[in-house]
Amino acid sequence: MTEEIKRDKQKCGGKGKVMFAYGILQLSSNVVSAIALTAIALSFCSIKEESKMFNKCVEEIQATGKSSSDAVRLCNGGK
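and the corresponding structure tokens:
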């Protein structure tokens, strides 16, 4: 009877290691996803600031009497 118990424990030992490895893999995958989402969120902040600066540039050029299309062209780096 004790030999049967030992055999059962040996059969389950491999499954435990595989499940542990799977858990570690899932955890690391979640960490990578969280880091990627943080990077995306931070890039949206810089895009928002860039759009504010662009809009301010367009408004300033329009105030000088130029048309909207001229203002956009100049703010995009045109001559």
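(Above: one complete record from the training split.) The CA atoms of residues 20 and 26 lie 10 Å apart.
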